[in-house]
């Protein structure tokens, strides 16, 4: 194998075509179809690849395919003309790139050959076409790479010529051949057969350059191909969710599914998305939280229940908020906010260990963060009193709290009450400063309509928020199960809604009837999966969501 060398990078920026604002989606799609048909017609008539395309787009205009895409469309047409499938149904794939790499990596000397014949497939990331020998680098989905070599001596002159003509960066390629090491020791598959497994019509971006944020967010599939951090986030998210489910299974929790379309929005203070159901001719809300349905499960006798669910809130977008997100909620009969805090700590610590190998994780900025050990606990009223230098209690008047807020320049809501002012003041001093894991306990009753009153502190409820690295990660309650008190709380929320509070909950009579059947004492918790990934990695929420919602360019 004296002719064997290694791959050199050979890639450039893809061309992009501008979409004219005046052209509708259908009109442009029809334009591109006509161009595809024109190219295929020229190829069928005997034109060469170069003759089949029009780099200037004189006929179809600037909204049509750019030159690189035209050439790939022409190659697809040529394959079909020659009786070859550019998207075959089956290929003789016998091994994965990962398995071949694991079996032989570091075990072959430079120039050493084996008689082990493998059939592999992967995406073409680099190409180098030489005289009698071509080199290709194939990548598996997880980024594991292997070199392929296509030699005239092995596949024949015609096959090698076709390879040079037809294969592009980004194509999925099948290779069958012996496992060898190149002259420089690069693990390789020396092909006796090759075949395009899927023809890529769109070129890849330049892989030696950092992807722009816009490309990474608007085209996550490109990020998965080109950026190891994006691939790792998808896998770590999956590992974290698997870990959560395993922890629940060990504690005898059942996973259920609750409705996304709801006739009454509730379970959290948030502005809902609305839609309309034609069959019933009724307006519906997209779920803002699954809480009220999971509590119905407690009523029905499912005493340990959880759901990993998609929620929708028609609110702002920033580094920790998204309009569509994944929430974990869990409820345990005969528990309370203390037992549910222990469950939450166990869930997060196990997720860190299962996904990252330790409770100490390394964030994207290179710093370490430790989720291990016991976690700090403070009370909302106590910590606020300490910061203000005066005692704040549930009896402190709205007027006095408003005066303090105005003096400090704290932003206030249009619809204010004691609880909201206390939370705004507390956030002014603490929200961004609680770096180590900290449970903030005992909230005002006005802002927690689904929480049981504190057993020893009038005017407060048994609720905690968990803060990590300066943002709220999870919340937990001793759940309210008195249907009379719950009705009082719902009525207070409804009055706030009438006064203009768009986040206030509606009165859910069906839920009140379920509570009337009898819900056992319980502890409950909610935690954003996206936020958990933020806490574990130091990423933004858009980085943690595989397909984030973004505003269309046109």
Automatic annotation (TrEMBL):
GO terms for cellular component: cytosol. Residues 237-552 form the Aminoacyl-transfer RNA synthetases class-II family profile domain. Residues 1-23 are annotated as: Disordered. GO terms for molecular function: ATP binding; lysine-tRNA ligase activity; magnesium ion binding; tRNA binding. It is an enzyme of class 6 (ligase). Mg(2+) 2 binds at residue 472. It is found in: Cytoplasm. It catalyses: tRNA(Lys) + L-lysine + ATP = L-lysyl-tRNA(Lys) + AMP + diphosphate. Binds 3 Mg(2+) ions per subunit. Keywords: Aminoacyl-tRNA synthetase, ATP-binding, Cytoplasm, Ligase, Magnesium, Metal-binding, Nucleotide-binding, Protein biosynthesis. Residues 1-11 have a biased composition (Basic and acidic residues). PROSITE patterns: AA_TRNA_LIGASE_II. CDD domains: LysRS_N. Its cofactor is Mg(2+). Its EC number is 6.1.1.6. The keyword Cytoplasm applies. SUPFAM superfamilies: Class II aaRS and biotin synthetases, Nucleic acid-binding proteins. Pfam families: tRNA-synt_2, tRNA_anti-codon. Mg(2+) 1 binds at residues 465, 472. GO terms for biological process: lysyl-tRNA aminoacylation. HAMAP family: Lys_tRNA_synth_class2 (MF_00252). Belongs to the class-II aminoacyl-tRNA synthetase family. Homodimer. This is Lysine--tRNA ligase. The gene is lysS.
